[in-house]
Specification:
- The structure is a single chain.
- It contains six helices and 14 strands.
- By secondary structure, the chain is an alpha/beta fold.
- α5 (213-223) links the parallel β11 and β12 (228-231).
C-alpha cells in the first residue's frame, strides 16, 4: 500500500512564505494498492495537483478512481470542480459519501458558481451512498462515524494484510465516539488523524470538531498503531509551529510525524 498526501491543511488554502514546507492545500489523500483501483479520500484543493499529475500521464487507461468523502464541508470538496479527471473522457470515477453526495457535487456546478453543469462533464461518473463496509478490488473499506459538526466519516482501508485508518476532522468526546475511533484504529499500520488545534487553543475551540497532537498520540498509544500521521494542520500555523508540534508528538510517540503536501509513505 502506498499513501500520498496531496492536501494536509484545514479550512482554506492560505499561502505564505512561512508555510512552504508543509504546504497549504486542503484535505486530499491518495491510496495506491496496485492493479487498476486507485482510492482517493476527500477532494480539497490537494486534488487539483493530483488531477494535474494524472492528466499528464499518471492515469492507467483501465484504471478506476474511487473517491470517498468524509463529509461535505468546504475544505473537503472545494477542489472537485477543478479536478481535471472529471473532464477526461476516458476517466471512470466512483464517488462515495453520505446520503446526498450526488446533489452536493452537482450543486457545486450550478450557476452562478460554475459555468459547467454536471451533465457536461466528460468522465464516466457514478455515485454511491456509503451505508456500510465496501469491497473495492482487493481492499475492504469500512466507514465509521467520528465526532464533528454535521457528522463525518472516518475510514479503515485493509488490503494485503495492511491496515490504514483515516480519521480526519474529529474531536474527543470522552465517550462513545472515542471508543469507536479506538476500535477502528486498533492495530493500524498507519493512523492518519486530525491535529488542527494546539493544546493551548483546544479549550477555546470546544465543539469545532478537531483534535490536538496530544489527542492523536493518546489514540495511537491506546490503539497500538505502528505509525501516526498528524494532518489537517490549522490554516494559520506556520512551518515553525507545525515542526514544534511534530517534535512534541515524537517525544511521546516516536513513530509520529506531521504529513505535508506531496509526502508519500509506503506501508
Amino acid at each position: 500500500m502506498e499513501v500520498t498526501f496531496w492536501g494536509t491543511r484545514g479550512s482554506v488554502p492560505c499561502f505564505s512564505k512561512q508555510k512552504i514546507h508543509f504546504g497549504t492545500n486542503t484535505s486530499c489523500l491518495e491510496v495506491r494498492l496496485g492493479g487498476t483501483e486507485r482510492l482517493l479520500f476527500d477532494a480539497g484543493t490537494g486534488i487539483v495537483s493530483l488531477g494535474d499529475r494524472l492528466h499528464n500521464g499518471g492515469l492507467i487507461e483501465e484504471e478506476t478512481l474511487h473517491l470517498f468523502f468524509s463529509h461535505f464541508h468546504w475544505d473537503h470538496i472545494q477542489g472537485l470542480p477543478f479536478f481535471k479527471m472529471v473532464y477526461h473522457p476516458d476517466a471512470r470515477i466512483v464517488i462515495y459519501g453520505r446520503p446526498g453526495v450526488e446533489s452536493v457535487f452537482s450543486s457545486q456546478l450550478l450557476g452562478p458558481y460554475s459555468p459547467i453543469p454536471l451533465e457536461a462533464l466528460a468522465a464516466k461518473i457514478e455515485f454511491v451512498t456509503v451505508e456500510g463496509p465496501l469491497q473495492v478490488g482487493h481492499a475492504r473499506i469500512t466507514p465509521f462515524p467520528v465526532n464533528h459538526p454535521q457528522s463525518c466519516l472516518g475510514y479503515v482501508i485493509e488490503a494485503g494484510g495492511v491496515r490504514l485508518t483515516y480519521a480526519t476532522d474529529s474531536e474527543p468526546d470522552g465517550g462513545d465516539m472515542d471508543r469507536l475511533l479506538l476500535e477502528h484504529a486498533r492495530g493500524a499500520d498507519l493512523l492518519i488523524q486530525d491535529s488542527n488545534n494546539t493544546v493551548e487553543e483546544a479549550p477555546h475551540r470546544k465543539g469545532w470538531g478537531h483534535s490536538t497532537w496530544l489527542d492523536c498520540v493518546r489514540t495511537a498509544r491506546e490503539a497500538g498503531v505502528r505509525r501516526l500521521a498528524l494532518t489537517h494542520h490549522d490554516t494559520f500555523h506556520s512551518d515553525h509551529e507545525i515542526r514544534r508540534k511534530e517534535r512534541m508528538a515524537q517525544k511521546e510517540f516516536p513513530a509520529a510525524f506531521c504529513a505535508y503536501d506531496g509526502l508519500t509513505v509506503g506501508l
